[in-house]
Amino acid sequence: MTRRRLHLLGAALLVAGACSSSEPDSGSTSTTAAPASLAAPTSPAIPTTTAAAAVTSSSADPEVDPVSFQTAGPHEVGITTLALPTGNLVEVFYPADDTVDGQTDSYQVRSFLPEAIRALIPEETADRYEIEAARDGAASPEGPFPLVLFSHGAAAFRSQSTDLARHLASWGMVVASPDHPSRNLESQLSNSEVRPQPAADDLRATRELVTSAAEGPLAGLVDPNLVAVSGHSAGGGTTLEVATDDGIAGYVSYASGAFDDTELPTVPSLFMAGALDEIVEPERTAEAHTAAAAPSWLWVIEETGHLAFSDICAIGNDEGGLIGLAESAGIGDLVPAELRRLATDGCEPPNVEVTSVWPAVNQASVAFYRYTFGLDDEPRGLDAIDLDGVTVEIDERLS
Fold first, then answer.
1. Which of 141, 160, 173, 372 could disulfide-link to 310, CB 3.0 to 4.6 Å?
2. Is residue 397 helix, strand or coil?
3. Alpha-carbon distance 142 to 75, whole Å?
4. Which carries the bigger pLDDT value, residue 6 or residue 145?
5. d(CA 154, CA 185)
6. pTM to 2 decimals?
7. Left (φ > 0), alpha (ψ -120 to 50) or beta: where does 284 sit?
8. Which of the 8 DSSP states describes residue 319?
C-alpha cells in the first residue's frame, strides 16, 4: 500500500530560523506518503563559489532494483584512520577486496571522551560498537570510486554514523568523516578554551587528504572529480557551506536545516528528517528543502527522531543507551542536561528501533548518490519506499 503525491514545485522561500544545532532550517513541503518500510550551533559564513552540477561517471553500474539499496551492496568494506595536518583524525570507509570477507572492526564511545572522564569508566561498560569492515584491508581493484564527505553533529564524533558509512562503501563509495574539535564530544565535555579551525575547513582538508592519498589502501582509490558532501544535525550546516565549493556534485542533509541568511548550494540535494525529532523540528528540514535548488528530495520518516541517522541509539540499548551506560559507569552527573537531551532523541518510545528505519535511510542515500554521481541516468528509488512497518513522507522537486 503506497500513497504517492509528488508535487513538482518551483524553488521558493528561503528558509527562516536557525536550529538549536547550527542546523539548517526547513521549509514547506508537499508530501508523498509511502509505507514501506547532535546538534550544535555553527552559523556558517557561506562562500559564494560556484558548485558543480551533477557529474557523469565514465562507467555506469548495471541497473539494479532500488529496493536492493536497503541492504549491503556488492563490495566488501575496509576502514582506515588518517590524520589531518591539524591533528584531528578522519575515519574512512572504502570498497575493499573480496579477501577481507568476514572481518570486523569496532570502536568504543569512551575513546571520544576527555581522558579524565575516560579513566573513570569501568572496563566492562558495554560502549563498544562492532562494524563489518576490515581494518586497513586491501582496497577493491575496481576503483577509482566517488567520495562522500561526512560531517558529524554537535557533541558527537567522527564514527557516529559508521553503519551508514559502511553501507555506502559497500555500494562503491569512499566515505570520509573527520572529527570536528570545534564541536565534538570531547570538546563539549572538556570546556577547552582552544579555538580549533571551523568544521567546514576540516571537511575541505579531508577532501584534499583523501583525494591526494599516495600510499595505503586509499592510494589512487578516489575519483577527485566525483565528490559529494553530507552531514547530520550541526553537520548539516557545515554541509551547506562546503556544498557551495567548486566540484561538489550534490549534498545530503540529515536532521538539519538552514539559517535565514544562508545561500543554499545550487547542486542536487536530499534532505532527511525524523517526524518525532525534537532537536531539529522536521518543519525546519522541510523549509530548507523547499528553498533548495531543484532537483531536491525530502524524506520524513515517521516514528523516528534525531539520532536515527547515527549509530548512537544502537549502542548500549539493552542498558538504557549512552545515558544508561553513563549512569551505570558512575559518571551520570558529568553529563550536562542538554547533552542528555541530544543523546536520547530518537532512542526511546514512541520512536521505533532505529535499526528498523536504517533500510529507508540506506535506500534514499544510495539512490541519491548513484544519480548525483551519474551511475544512474535518472533518479531511481527516491520517489517511493516499500519497507514493512515504516512510513515515509516524500516530496520530490525535479524542476
1. 160
2. strand
3. 10
4. 145
5. 7
6. 0.82
7. alpha
8. G
The domain 32-397: what is its CATH number?
Answer: 3.40.50.1820
Given CA atoms 46, 52, 53, 58 in this order, what sign does their dihedral have?
Answer: negative
**Cα–Cα nearest to 4, from 36, 27, 26:** 36
Domain limits, the chain: 32-397
Q: What angle do CA 66, 233, 381 make, to 5 degrees?
A: 10
> What is the full DSSP assignment across 175-194?
EEEE--TTTSHHHHHHT---
Per DSSP (E only), the strands in the chain are 32-36, 76-83, 89-96, 105-108, 128-131, 134-135, 145-151, 174-178, 222-232, 248-254, 269-274, 296-301, 390-397
What the block records as the C-alpha cell of 351 is 520512536
Confidence of residue 375 (pLDDT cuts 50, 70, 90): very high
Contact by Cβ (8 Å): 329, 235: no
Q: How far is CA 252 from the centre of its chain?
A: 7
Higher pLDDT, 123 or 192: 123
CA distance 239 to 168: 17
Sign, CA dihedral 43-49-54-58, equals: negative
Quick one: which of 139, 142, 138, 175 has its CA closest to 160? 175
Grid cell of 39 as nine digits? 546538534
Q: Residue 217: CA atoms inside 13 Å, Cβ hemisphere, count?
A: 22
| CA dist 189 → 122, 133, 328, 334 (Å) | 19, 30, 18, 8
What's residue 111's pLDDT?
78
